[in-house]
Every structure is written in structure tokens, then in C-alpha cells.
Amino acid sequence: MARSHGSDTSSVPKGKINRSGLSSALRLYKYIKPYRGQYFLGIFFLLGSSLASLAFPKLLGDLVNTGNSTTLGQSLNQTVILIAIILVVQATFAYFRIVLFVNVTEKSLAALRQASYRHLIKLPLQFFEKRRLVNSTAEYRQM
Predict the structure, then answer these.
(1) Rounded to whole angstroms, how far apart are CA atoms 43 and 51?
(2) How far is CA 12 from the centre of its chain?
(3) pTM of this structure
């Protein structure tokens, strides 16, 4: 969920992608690694729902073309049934995609928070003397 803090980010220059930025981003994947089976299953459902979304306009075009032809009966019914099947498949794939990605996201974010808290607990007292704990935890919760 995106949070709006009221600050305008349009004037902030965008950073370029470099090796150090990629390596720090790739460190986050260790929190997703225990859930990679669910993650790749979610990718499968993402591809399936995308393919179903791409097939739907083509089938609607076939439905219109079938309506313009002289033989309406059987092919029109088959096209409508195929459209209904595609919609059910797309809805099912989209549901499982969302459920799987939400589960992976929540579990990996929980693991990241636990690791951060474990790190905070191990910090020396001088760290907390230099920085107020209220500010540190408030910034941490903003993540």
C-alpha cells in the first residue's frame, strides 16, 4: 500500500541504476528465498491471467466476425462458451496470483522486520545515545 506524506517528489532527481544499487537490492531477495515455490507459482498464475487477458479481445473479435457471417448457429454458441471459459480461467488465475503474492510479500516483510529488530537489539548503547530511540523506531515504521 502506497503512503502519501504530502511531499512533492517530482523535483527529486531520479538515481541511476548502478552495480552497488543492484547489489543492495538483491540482498532483499534472501528474504523471499524461503518462499520461492509460492513466488514462482504466483509467476505462473501471472502469466496465465495475462494470456487469458490477451485472448479475450481476440475472442470478442471472433464473436463479432461470427455474427457477420451467414452461419450463426453453432459457431456463435461455441465462441460465447469459450469466452465464458476464458473469463472464469482469468478470474481464477488472477485470484491465486494475488493470494500467492500477498502471502509471499507478508511473510518476507515479516522476516525482514524480525532481522531488523534483531540487529537493533545487538547495537551498542552508544548508538542509542547518539540517536533518539523514538526517531529511530518512527523512521523504521515508515518503511
Answers:
(1) 12
(2) 25
(3) 0.69
Report the C-alpha gap between 117 and 126 in whole angstroms: 17
- Exposure pattern of 68-95 as b/e (b: 16+ CB <10 Å)? eeeeeeeeeeebeeebeebeeebeebbe
Angle 134-143-117 from CA coordinates, rounded to 5°: 60
E strand segments, the chain: none
Residues 31-59 have pLDDT tens digits of: 999 999 999 999 999 999 999 999 888 88
Question: 36 exposed, middle or buried (CB, 10 Å; 0-12, 13-18, 19+)?
Answer: exposed
Q: Which residues contact 140 (CB under 8 A, 6 or more apart)?
A: 116, 120
State how far the alpha carbon of 43 is from the alpha carbons of 22, 29, 54, 111, in Å: 21, 15, 16, 21
pLDDT, tens digit, 9 for 90 and up, residues 114-133: 998 999 888 888 877 777 65
